[in-house]
Design brief:
The structure is a single chain. This protein has 2 helices and 4 strands, in the order βαββαβ. Helix content is 25%, strand content 29%. The termini are far apart. A 4-stranded antiparallel β-sheet has the order 2-3-1-4. By secondary structure, it is of the alpha+beta class.
């Protein structure tokens, strides 16, 4: 280690910094994929609400990716994480935030 460099202490592990979320609550997922049609199809497979609570967001500068917002009420952490996992496992979806 260089003389002038200071070691920066790391914070506590992420599992200890978990935010407190009161359920049920409104939760928003930003979903990034190749097309709006693919995103709508994947969300419709896993979210059985009508009308589908999905809104357009952005298109990447090169036009290769699109993003959409899904806002739904989740009733538990398990439900929130299960939906996240289902969305991320589909090959049409690149990223879920």
């Amino acid at each position: 280690m260089r003389k002038n460099m200071k070691k920066i202490p790391m914070g506590p592990p992420a599992r200890q910094c978990k935010p407190k979320i009161d359920y049920p609550c409104s939760w928003q997922y930003k979903i990034i994929g190749f097309s709006r049609e693919d995103i709508r199809r994947v969300v419709a497979e896993h979210v059985r609400l009508k009308p589908l609570p999905l809104t357009d967001s952005n298109v990447s500068s090169g036009g290769r990716y699109v993003s959409m917002n899904l806002e739904i009420t989740v009733h538990s952490e398990k439900e929130r994480l299960e939906l996240y996992t289902l969305l991320t496992e589909d090959p049409a979806i690149k990223v879920v935030l």
